[in-house]
Specification:
Layout (H helix, E strand, L loop, with lengths): L1 H9 L2 H8 L4 H8 L4 H9 L3 E5 L8 H6 L3 E6 L15 E4 L5 H7 L7 E4 L13 H5 L9 E7 L15 E6 L4 H8 L5 E6 L20 E6 L6 H9 L7 E6 L9 H11 L5 E7 L2 H4 L4 H8 L7 E5 L8 E5 L5
Parallel strand pairs: 1-2, 2-3, 3-4, 4-5, 5-6, 6-7, 7-8, 8-9, 9-10
Antiparallel strand pairs: 10-12, 11-12
């Protein structure tokens, strides 16, 4: 043990600063806090730390009390409420479950917050009257740059304001009419991942309002629907003429009928600047039978980004899936 300690003492402080960037606050505290005066000094000067809370009690542990004001990335893996006020330096916050109103108000005190992710809806599907999306889209987090939210409900008259800082957004929705509302509220949005839940509401014929000129990437997840896929795609693309990257991922369990010829026409008309395209979708057997090798060349001529066609064969758990891509994915 003495040889190991002596070897560590020979290493420069700069190396420890680099190594410690990859350790959680719990590992740093348990491994180095009481080692000696040199490491105590290094730990005291560390910034940009990462914390992961598995249980509510960890917020009151010695490690978190010591490092709280210097944690910039915090992941909360439990469902209990916690007091975030000691974590004044947080720039990135990942929550296991959607916070209630009181928690949202405490998140407002994180003045440096740039990234916010929520991975599960409220417990027992109880949705709050004033939920996290309301805080996000009323610019309650003015430095927020990226956000991942759960289901956002549609209202005819959303009391939203401009959120000029938000550039990346990942949401699920049950009503396509939420789409133009979000684009209007987020004029600086560059990347948008939108998932429509199973059997989402009927889309309107057109979207009102001006085009959104900043959006460059749209990733669309289409779950089971009785509506025309091409109609939905045309509707969404009608508002984003400067789109450069577009992907469509269909349901893995339910087949969707899509008109490849009509899709090509829509892409030509709606997104002239598109330079990357990807589609992966479970299709009905009737469509799969028409997509033989002899048809691939004709389809490549429909649209410049239809470069690679292939079918993923069905398995015991998954049906056959069509893939069209502009660049081969490894």
């Amino acid at each position: 043990m003495s040889l190991s300690v002596s070897f560590l003492e020979l290493l420069p402080d700069e190396l420890f600063y680099d190594i410690f960037e990859y350790l959680s606050v719990r590992d740093l505290y348990d491994g180095f806090y009481n080692l000696n005066g040199r490491f105590a000094s290094i730990l005291t000067s560390l910034t940009n730390l990462y914390g992961e809370m598995i249980t509510k009690e960890e917020a009151h542990s010695p490690a978190y009390r010591f490092f709280a004001s210097r944690i910039t990335i915090l992941s909360v893996e439990h469902v209990e409420t916690i007091n975030l006020s000691p974590f004044s330096a947080i720039r990135s916050l990942r929550l296991h479950t959607e916070p209630n109103r009181s928690q949202c108000q405490s998140i407002q005190l994180l003045y440096h917050l740039e990234h916010l992710s929520v991975y599960k809806p409220p417990i027992k599907n109880v949705y709050y009257s004033v939920s996290l999306p309301f805080f996000v889209f009323t610019n309650s987090f003015p430095t927020l740059r990226s956000c991942r939210l759960n289901l956002i409900p549609f209202k005819d008259n959303q009391q939203w304001t401009l959120v000029s800082s938000l550039q990346t957004l990942d949401i699920s929705a049950g009503d396509p009419r939420i789409y133009p509302q979000i684009l209007h509220s987020c004029p600086s949005l560059v990347r948008f991942k939108l998932e429509f839940i199973r059997y989402f509401a009927r889309p309107p014929k057109i979207f009102p309002g001006p085009s959104h000129t900043s959006l460059h990437r749209l990733d669309l997840c289409l779950n089971c629907t009785t509506f025309s896929c091409c109609q939905i795609i045309d509707l969404l693309l009608s508002l984003v003429p400067n789109l450069m990257h577009f992907s469509i991922i269909g349901s893995f369990s339910d087949a969707s009928d899509i008109d490849i010829d009509l899709l090509a026409v829509i892409l030509h008309q709606r997104v002239p600047k598109l330079n990357e395209f990807y589609l992966e979708m479970t299709i009905p057997e009737s469509l799969a039978s028409t997509l033989q090798d002899s048809n691939w060349q004709r389809m490549r001529q429909l649209y410049p980004l239809f470069n690679y066609f292939h079918m993923n064969p069905s398995t015991q758990n998954t049906p056959e899936r069509l893939i069209i891509e502009s660049k081969r994915r490894i």
